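User: Hey, my collaborator sent me this sequence without any context and asked if I could get a structure. I don't really work with proteins. Can you help?
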Amino acid sequence: MKFNPMPIIYFLFILIMGAAGISPAEASALQAFVSIAPQKYFVQKIGGAQVAVSVLVPPGADPHTYEPKPAQMRALAKCDIYFAVGVDFEKAWLKKMVSFNSRMLIVHTEEGLPRIPVAGSHDHGQDSKHQAASPDPHIWLSPPLVKQQADHILSALVRVDPKNEKLHRANYAHFLREIESLDRELRDLFSKHPGEPFLVLHPSWGYFARAYGLQMISMEMEGKEPKPAQLQKLIQEARKKNIRVVFAQPQFSSKSAEIISREIGGGVVLVDPLAEDWAENLRRAARQFISAFGKK
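Assistant: No problem. I've predicted the 3D structure and written it out in structure-token form, which is a compact way to encode the shape of the chain:
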């Protein structure tokens, strides 16, 4: 009887993958990288089990200044597809990533989306002298803009993984319904608070504010902490608008936020724009914003 080595080879493959913590399904899946955790949520919703997604920027790290680790660069050398989102570190690193892996498809999910300038201080980024500022990268915090990012993700997955096109399209349709349901939920919540101002340390929530008719006031001016004179103006504005909460985020020091919160007799609340569970995180942030409105 002719010896068939394939069962043994497959068994050895299973042992090796198991020792590495990798299932056979993950090993055969499309290998994708994303810049930030919320993108993993989007890609997994559309790609399903057919796509294994790794996140470049780990929890707690700043995506504006992050530098990939050597182990990540080695993993990127084996990657099939990279989903960019327009955060600052991509400008410096995408070309280097391509030099490591020329076959990797780079997908700019921010391409074609309407952008707003990075918010300045209490001018909300709308003053004409700030119009030349770099575009705000936080597009993933606006459900209407995530729908457009989902279009880019679907197109790329169909291009790289055509054999699973029907599955990707079905997942995409389901994800769009989820986004639309969340959008309606948030619109209903904030319809009772039109034009409400909220104060943030880092201007991450500009697209969210625009989508739901809110007014984001940022302490930072183009990525820099406020100078003493600017800090005093912010304190005066917060008092005038009866703001009692300063929203900070885990990736940055909240020292300036604590200074202002003491001056206005309020407190500091953390909201994380980079949480992986995107939909629930936006619901949680919405509840925190509305709770702050109620403290007036």
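In plain terms: The CA atoms of residues 204 and 269 lie 14 Å apart. You can pass these tokens on to your collaborator as they are.
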